[in-house]
Design a protein that fits this description.
There is one protein chain. It is built from five helices and nine strands. By secondary structure, the protein is of the alpha+beta class. The protein has a domain of 115 residues: Gcn5-related N-acetyltransferase (GNAT) (Aminopeptidase). Strands 1, 2, 3, 4, 5, 6, 7, 8 and 9 form a nine-stranded mixed beta sheet that branches. Helix 4 links the parallel strand 5 and strand 6. The two termini are 22 Å apart. The relative contact order is 0.18.
């Protein structure tokens, strides 16, 4: 059973499955970092270096707002169990999905799909995007299955990152 969130502006908290989805605040930083660290720990060689590679996680709301984006969290029992962010891009008609993570304990409840849908709906309504794109580590097989189920199309080629995780990423796109 899939759960879809129908609040494009997400100005108020909304319930998804047994989670509450709301705009992230900068005060959520520690829980967001802990969540992403937990997800990375599931994959050999994935490391999260916040200061060096992802300093935006220290101030997620402020950092994403500065570039015209948004950041949301899903809470399960009062703790952050999922994240997603969205930004505009330089490509006309495109927006980009970032930071889609769901804790292993919260997977299978439709939270990832609902967060994706929220980002897509907001990209359309607030950024007037016609297309959505994302980069995903080649090791994140569950994420690939979700994106493909949601009709994202994997583009040819790979992106090799010069990061501590030695990431090799796929690019996915979707017409909104």
């Amino acid at each position: 059973m899939s759960t879809t969130l129908h609040t494009p502006s997400a100005d108020i908290a909304a319930r998804v499955a047994d989670a509450i989805v709301r705009e992230a605040g900068d005060s959520d930083s520690e829980q967001i970092i802990d969540l992403i660290n937990g997800v990375y720990a599931e994959y050999q060689g994935c490391v999260l270096l916040v200061d060096e590679e992802e300093p935006e996680l220290k101030t997620p709301k402020t950092s994403f707002e500065k570039i015209g984006g948004r950041f949301w969290v899903a809470e399960c029992d009062g703790n952050v169990c999922g994240t997603v962010a969205l930004t505009p891009t330089d490509a006309p008609g495109f927006a980009r999905l970032h930071k889609l993570y769901v804790s292993s304990a919260a997977r299978g409840r439709g939270i990832g799909e609902a967060l994706c849908n929220l980002a897509e709906q907001t990209a359309k309504s607030e950024l007037h995007a016609e297309n959505f794109m994302l980069y995903t580590d080649s090791r994140f097989l569950d994420a690939h299955r979700l994106y493909e189920r949601l009709e994202y199309i994997r583009q040819p080629g790979l992106v090799e990152r010069a990061d501590a995780s030695h990431s090799i990423e796929y690019v996915y796109t979707k017409r909104l």
